[in-house]
Amino acid sequence: MSKKKKKKIEGIFRATEKSFGFVEIENEEDLFIAAKNVNGALNGDIVQVIIDKPKEGTKRAEAKIVKICNREKETVVGIFQKSKNFGFVVPDDKKFATDIFISKSKCKNAKNNDKVIAKIIKYPKDGKNAEGEIIEVLGNVNQAGVDMLSVIKEFNLPNEFPSFVKEEAEKISQEINKKDINNRRDLRDNIIFTIDGEDAKDLDDAISVSKTKDGNYMLDIHIADVSYYVKESSKLDREAIKRGTSVYMFDRVIPMLPFELSNGICSLNAGKDRFALSCSMEIDNKGKVITSDVYKSIIKVTERMTYTNVNKIINNQDDVILNKYSKYIDKFKLMEELALILKNRRLEQGYLNLDIPESKIILDENGRAIEVKKYETTFANEIIEQFMLTANESIAEKFYWLEAPFIYRVHEEPEYEKIQETNKFLFNIGEKIKANRDNIRPKAFSDVLEKLKGTEYEKVISTLILRTLKLAKYESENKGHFGIASKYYCHFTSPIRRYPDLFIHRVISEYLENNYNLNQERKNELDNKAKKYAETSSECEKVATKAERDAEDIKKAEFMQNKIGEEYEGIISSITSFGMFVELENTVEGLIRFEDMGNEYFVYDENRKTLIGEKTNRVFKIGDQVKIKVIEANKILKKIAFELCPTVDVS
Q1: Is the Cβ–Cβ distance between 296 and 206 less than 8 Å?
Q2: pLDDT digit string (tens) for 446-462?
Q3: pLDDT of 2
Q4: Is the C-alpha dihedral spanning 177, 181, 183, 184 positive or negative?
Q5: Which residue, among 527, 538, 446, 524, has the nearest Cα to 483 in the 3D structure?
Q6: Disulfide: which of 193, 197, 346, 376 matches 351 by Cβ 3.0-4.6 Å?
Q7: For 234, which DSSP code?
Q8: Homologous superfamily of 564-644
C-alpha cells in the first residue's frame, strides 16, 4: 500500500534571528519550522508546508516548508559594505536571513557604510546568498535623518502624495460651502472645545458638556466631517485606503490625508466654521447613556485647549491660566465630574486600566535624540479618553441594531492557555486571574489590576496582562471589545488619521441622508467594502505600529550611545531563557544576558519566570529592582545591553 500523501497547508513564514521560524495559519496555532526545514524562505513569504510532527501537549506541531508561493520583499534596506570587486548589503531587518551580494557593476556609486535600498535579483538557494542591485542610496549611516528615512523605506511607507492626489486636495476650498449649512444643525453659538497635546495640528474631535434640568449630563462629541470632502472612490479616497492610517515618527507625520485636509478644512480650528458629524448623549449620574443621537452639524470651536492647561484648571494650579479661562472653569469642572463617573462605571464592568507609560523622545534640530522620558498624562487626557470611548460605543451599538454595513473595532477574549501562563507568575505574589475555558471575563483581569494598584507590581502586571491579551483589529462583524469591556465598539472619532473611522462616517452620512432606509443592493455593496477595508486597515495598522516601534527603538539606542559605562536603577520587566530585560525610569529597556550577570550560573525557572543563582541561590523575578551598567547601545541593530552591577556585601 502506498503511503498517504501529506496535506499541504499555506501560511505566512515568520523568521526569527536564530534561523528557525514559525508559519502563521489563519485561525490555527502557528507551526514551528526548524532551521533545516526553512528551505530558503524569508520573513513574510507566503509558503506551503507539510506537518512533520503533530502537536504534543503544549508543544507546537512541527512542519517543513515545501514551496515558496509568494515572496514578500522585492527590495531590502540595509548598510552597504564595499570591497574591491563587489559589495554586500547587510539588511536592517535581522530576521532577513541573508546578506545581499552586489556585483561591482550594480553598486550605483554606493560608499562604504551608506544606507541603501537593494533590489533582489536572485533569492537565496542551496546555501548561497541572495543577489541584488543598488537602486537608491539614502546617505551615510551616521547622517542626520537617514535613520528615519530608512524606517520609511524599510516598511514601504508612502512618504509623498502622488501629484494627482495633491491636485485633488488643492481644489478643495478652505472655506465651508454655505449652501450645505441648511442641511445641518447649526451649533456655532455653542461653547465647544478641542483638547489636545501642545503639538497637535490635525484636530478632529471637539466636545461640549452641559447639565439637563433633571440633573443628567449632555455630552456632545463633534467629529470632523471628513467624508463630506473625501468622496467615495475619489483619488483622495483610494490613496487613504492604501495608507489606512497616519504614521507618527517624532519629527514627522506620514499622514493618511494631505495637509490641505488634515491641517486645513477638516481640522476643527478655533474660531473657524467647520462641518462635523456630531453624537449627542444624555448620561445619568451612574454613567449610563440613556439616549443618543447622531447628526450632521456645523460648529465653531470656542477655544483650542491643551491637556496641560485643562489639568491646571481642574486642579486650580495656575492663576494666569485660571484668569484667562475664568468664564469656562465651570465647564471644565463639569467635564471632570462626568469623566470620573464614566471611568468608575467602566472599572465596575471590567475595563482594563493598564498602567503602561508611553515614551516621549525629544530630538534636537538635526533629528538626534537628546532626551527620553515618560510621556506624562493627566486627568485631562482621561477626560478625552472617556468621552471618546463613550461616543465610539454609542455609535457602534446604534448601527449594530440597525444591521448596517459597518467596521467594528474588535478585541476578542484571550486564550485560556495564555491566562494559565500568566497565572503561574501571579501565583508567586498570591494572585490569580479567575477564569476557565467557558468563562473568561474582563472583570477577572481588572480585579487583579485593582488589587495591585500602587504596589511595586502594578506596572509589571499591566505589561504581563497586555502580553496575555490578543491584538485588537478591525472587522465587519461585531464581536465586542474585551479590553474596554464593551459589547459594541468602533472607531468613530479620528477620521483624519484612520480609514475605518472615515468609512463608517460615510455609512452614517448615507443613512442620515436616506432617512435610515438603504436598499439591499447598496447595503450589500457597503458590506463587501466593510469586509475588505477592515482587513486592509488592520494590515496597515500592523505595519504602522511596527514602523513606529522601530523608530522608537532606534532613537532610544541613539540616546543611550553616549551613556555607556553609566549606572542606573531599573526594574526587571521580563525574564527569558537567555537573560532578563530591565526597564529604566525613562522607559528605556535593555537586555542583561547570562554572561553579563557576574560570576555565577543562573537557572531559568520557566513556570515562575525567575532566575536562580546556582551558588548563592539569589533569585531574580519580574518586578525586582536592580542596578545596571550600560555596556552597549547600537542604533543600527536597535539594541541596548546592560550588565548587572555587583551587589555590595555589607556584612
Answers
A1: no
A2: 999 999 888 878 888 89
A3: 45
A4: positive
A5: 446
A6: 346
A7: S
A8: Nucleic acid-binding proteins (2.40.50.140)
In tens, the pLDDT along 586-634 reads 999 999 999 999 888 899 988 778 899 998 899 998 889 999 999 999 9
Residues 523-563 pLDDT 10s: 999 999 999 999 999 999 999 999 999 999 999 999 999 99
Could you write out the DSSP letters of every residue in 243-301? H-B-EEETTEEE-SS-HIIIIIITS--TTSEEEEEEEEEEE-TTS-EEEEEEEEEEEE-
Q: From CA 643, how far away is CA 592, in angstroms rounded?
A: 5
**Cell numbers that stand for 212 in this block:** 439637563
Longest dimension (CA), the chain: 91
Query: 529 phi and psi, to 5 degrees?
Result: -70, -40
Rg (CA), the chain: 27
Q: Return the CATH number of 9-70, one of 2.40.50.140, 3.90.1300.10, 2.40.160.20, 3.40.720.10.
A: 2.40.50.140
Strands (E) across 150-190 are located at: 185-186
Closest residue by Cα to residue 349 from 460, 441, 480 = 441
Task: Judge contact between 247 and 544, C-beta under 8 A.
Answer: yes
> What b/e sequence results for 248-282 when a residue is b if at least 16 CB atoms lie within 10 Å of its CB, and e otherwise?
ebbeebbbbbbbbbbbbbbbbbeeebbbbbbbbbb
Q: In degrees, to the nearest 5, what angle opens at C-alpha 67 toward C-alphas 65 and 68?
A: 100
Measure the CA–CA gap between 545 and 543, rounded to whole angstroms: 5
CB atoms within 10 A of CB 64: 19
Amino acid at 94: K
Distances from the Cα of 74 to the Cα of 62, 118, 156, 428, angstroms = 28, 9, 11, 48
Q: For 629-638, what is each residue's pLDDT tens digit?
A: 999 999 999 9
Task: Specify the pairing of strand 579-584 against strand 589-593.
Answer: antiparallel
How far apart are alpha carbons 185 and 241 in whole angstroms? 30
Domain chopping of the chain, boundaries:
9-70, 75-143, 163-404+499-552, 416-468, 564-644
The Cα 49–Cα 38 span in angstroms is 10
The topology under which CATH files domain 75-143 is OB fold (Dihydrolipoamide Acetyltransferase, E2P) (2.40.50)
What are the percentages of helix, strand and coil residues in the chain, rounded to 5? 30, 30, 40
Residue from 401, 396, 405, 398 nearest 528 by CA: 405
191: cell is 461653547
Give CA separation, 148 vs 127, 367, 431, 554, in Å. Answer: 32, 9, 43, 9
| Residue 620 pLDDT | 93
Across all residues in the chain, what is the average pLDDT? 93
Q: Taking 60 as the threshold, does the pLDDT of residue 380 lie above it? A: yes
* Of 27-36, 260-269, 535-544, minimum mean pLDDT range: 27-36
Q: Which amino acid is at 258?
A: P
Q: Enter the C-alpha cell of residue 134.
A: 543598488
